[in-house]
Amino acid sequence: MALKQINDDSPDMYSAIVEVKATPKAVPHRLERRDYPLFWSREKNADGKTDIEWILKKMRFIPKSMRHEVSEEYVRLFFSDKANGRKLANTYLHGIASQFRGVS
Q1: Of 96, 50, 91, 42, the residue nearest 70 (C-alpha)
Q2: How many CB atoms lie within 10 A of CB 17?
Q3: What letter would DSSP give residue 5?
Q4: CA distance 25 to 10
Q5: CA of 25: how far to CAs of 22, 28, 29, in Å?
Q6: CA-CA distance, 103 to 41, in Å (whole number)?
Q7: Is the pLDDT of residue 22 over 70?
Q8: Is the separation of the CB atoms in 25 and 61 below 8 Å?
Q9: Cα–Cα distance measured from residue 92 to residue 40, given in angstroms and rounded to the nearest whole number
Q10: What is the pLDDT of residues 68-78, one digit of tens each?
């Protein structure tokens, strides 16, 4: 099989590739530190709200230095029991928040 000769000024297969400059991200997402749980029940209650609003209200009472550990324990309890995990996690969060309510 003979190869066809091309001119020296012919475009090669790389000439159409344009260099893309990386743009810096504004704020990298940090998974190592959380102020609220990553998982919660998305089922709506009688008021039409999910658990996240209730969780965020409770988390504001907990000191910032403890929020990550509380979030991890909430998620662990949430997944610990398929039938009662939500109740266990919410009861735990309510108990912790109650300890710090009124403390400044």
Answers
A1: 96
A2: 7
A3: P
A4: 38
A5: 9, 6, 9
A6: 28
A7: no
A8: no
A9: 13
A10: 999 999 999 99
CA 73 – CA 47 distance, rounded (Å)? 27
The position carrying tokens 């910032």 is: 64
Both tokens of 56, joined, read: 């965020």
Pick the closest to residue 88 from 76, 71, 100 (CA basis): 76
Question: What is the 3 state secondary structure string of 16-68?
Answer: CCCCCCCCCCCCCCCCCCCCCCCCCCCCCCCCCCCHHHHHHHHHCCCCHHHHH
As a whole number of angstroms, the distance between CA 92 and CA 52 comes to 15
Q: Is the pTM of this model over 0.85?
A: no
The amino acid at 96? I
Radius of gyration of the chain (CA): 27
Give dist(CA 54, CA 28) in Å, integer.
27
